[in-house]
């Protein structure tokens, strides 16, 4: 069992350009449109953005330590087998202590980029409503779950790529193209545990992947002399596993441009390694790229550099259950900042 801790609060909304709340992933128009319709209809943040903060000494965590000695206000298990426990912090001094620690620190969006951008869009709409009370209005705040980067239960899993429906796909031609950038190591695989161990060992030296296609299994490891000019962006982003995969394999070797990626015309995504191994034998699947997880510090570095990764670059596990805490949005409701962060 793994325990991850964090807290839910209101946070003042900031556009990304302000440098307070930092994204790391590209978003898609479709999911944002769906979420905006839901928020308009309910005028409520029904679930939280998942944010990270960097507090190596875990000063903010201390404010919540006593709560865990009490019975939780809410406890239940979701269908994915995850147990959720929720306590309510009401001590003004403890809340103020958390505010002091985090006031000047950045928030890194781990999960919920579409949700956060939708919060910004709805804020702009509700600002025009009669009764809007300005900077203290409830619509100026978003509902967020914050987790310390130093929390030992913070897990990031990889998201594997499944290729399908690509006209003219040819494995031999693909391998010829990839050989210019990657060392190819073909071997049999026996299961997910072995694949994860091998990828971790190879990935310690350079970005590495397992390509499954046509009954073959080939490990790809970036060559030291590989031409990364097509990757673009600052150095912090140019050698990330997911960025290299998309630039050299998905876009250059396979010819799938960003528009097709956003539409998921030829790609779908899987979180589980065993499932990814099985998917390679499914009808219609042309190839599977099995990946290492992106490191949390890499996510933070990309965000600080003002860069974004391709969609589905990270999978922070477990997901936060929707509906645990609801945040109604009334433009006329002033927020007491003693009760929010």
Please give a structural write-up.
With 341 residues, the chain is α+β, with helices and mostly antiparallel strands. The chain contains ten helices and 17 strands. The chain has helices at 29-42, 92-102, 113-126, 171-178, 192-203, 235-238, 241-253, 258-263, 273-279, 296-304, and strands at residues 7-12, 21-22, 44-45, 49-53, 74-77, 83-86, 107-111, 141-148, 155-157, 160-164, 182-186, 208-213, 216-222, 267-270, 285-291, 315-317, 327-328. A six-stranded antiparallel beta sheet has the order 11-13-12-15-10-14, sandwiched between helices. Strands 1-8-4-7-2 form a five-stranded mixed beta sheet. Strands 3-17 form a two-stranded antiparallel sheet. Helix 1 (29-42) crosses helix 3. The mean pLDDT is 91.
In brief:
It contains ten helices and 17 strands.
């Amino acid at each position: 069992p793994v325990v991850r801790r964090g807290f839910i609060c209101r946070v003042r909304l900031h556009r990304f350009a302000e440098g307070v709340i930092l994204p790391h992933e590209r978003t898609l128009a479709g999911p944002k449109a769906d979420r905006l319709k839901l928020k308009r209809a309910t005028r409520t943040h029904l679930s939280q953005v998942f944010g990270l903060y960097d507090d190596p000494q875990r000063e903010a965590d201390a404010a919540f330590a006593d709560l865990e000695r009490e019975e939780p206000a809410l406890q239940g298990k979701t269908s994915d087998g995850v147990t959720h426990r929720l306590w309510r912090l009401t001590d003004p001094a403890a809340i103020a202590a958390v505010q002091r620690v985090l006031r000047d620190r950045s928030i890194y969006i781990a999960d919920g980029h579409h949700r956060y951008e939708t919060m910004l869009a709805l804020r702009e709409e509700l600002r025009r409503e009669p009764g809007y009370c300005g900077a203290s209005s409830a619509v100026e705040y978003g509902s967020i779950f914050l987790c310390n980067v130093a929390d030992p239960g913070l897990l990031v899993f990889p998201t594997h790529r499944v290729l399908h429906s690509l006209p003219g796909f040819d494995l031999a031609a693909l391998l010829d193209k990839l050989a210019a950038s990657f060392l190819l190591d073909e071997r049999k695989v026996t299961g997910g545990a072995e694949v994860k161990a091998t990828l971790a060992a190879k990935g310690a030296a350079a970005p590495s992947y397992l390509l499954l296609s046509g009954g073959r299994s080939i490990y790809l490891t970036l060559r030291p002399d590989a031409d990364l000019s097509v990757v673009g962006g600052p150095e912090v982003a140019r050698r990330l596993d997911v960025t290299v995969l998309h630039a050299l394999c998905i876009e250059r070797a396979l010819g799938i441009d960003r528009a097709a990626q956003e539409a998921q015309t030829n790609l779908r995504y899987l979180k589980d390694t065993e499932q990814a191994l099985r998917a390679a034998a499914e009808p219609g699947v042309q190839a599977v790229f099995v990946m290492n997880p992106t490191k949390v510090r890499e996510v933070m570095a990309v965000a600080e550099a003002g860069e974004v990764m391709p969609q589905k670059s990270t999978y922070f596990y477990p997901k936060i259950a929707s509906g645990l805490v609801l945040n109604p949005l009334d433009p006329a409701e002033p927020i007491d900042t003693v009760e929010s962060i």
